[in-house]
Specification:
CATH superfamily of one domain: OmpA-like domain
Strand content: 5-15%
CATH architecture of one domain: 2-Layer Sandwich
Largest sheet: 4 strands, mixed
Order of helices and strands: HHEHHEHEHE
Structural class: alpha+beta
Number of strands: 4
Strand order of the largest sheet: 1-4-2-3
Number of helices: 6
Amino acid sequence: MNHLQKRTLIAIAALSLFSAACSKKVAVAPPPPPVRTVTPATAARPTPPAPAPVVAAERPAPATPAPRYPNAVTRARIDELLARIEDAYFDYDRAALRPDALKALQADSTELRDILKDFPDYKLTIEGHCDERGSAEYNVALGEKRAEAAKDYLVQVGIPSAQLNLISYGKERPVCEEHDEACWQKNRRIHIVAMAQTR
């Protein structure tokens, strides 16, 4: 190394120290690169490529939560299905579903199940009803058993239990008010309605 190169190196080092001392930053300046002399015998080596910048992976936007309550069109379809599902009727003083009651519940219950599973906040109410004979307390209990029998069937079809509420009206809401068997048969029933929206 000749005298001029040594002086240049000392000047660069002094300048670096001076800059570091005058600077208010705490960071230490990197040492200067060494001066290289290329002789004709040494071939120039290619400089390695700079590493590619690291790009943060984009996070997918959070998915919009599925609605928990059906829109107006879907609610209208549910109401249509409920209107087509006939009331299930019972024998006197019985809460077991008869074959005709099972057939009534079976109608459209599969489509109803497929709709309800997508809307966990939408609920149905199964009403239990009785004829006029017997005490009010007895008929409320019997109406509840009838509603429970219908609920058990609908749960077996696949409608979530949490979406089926029960209420018994006993003999308080007859659809027929004659005092004969034909009328009493119409009152021994369950009826399914959609619950009012509570939000």
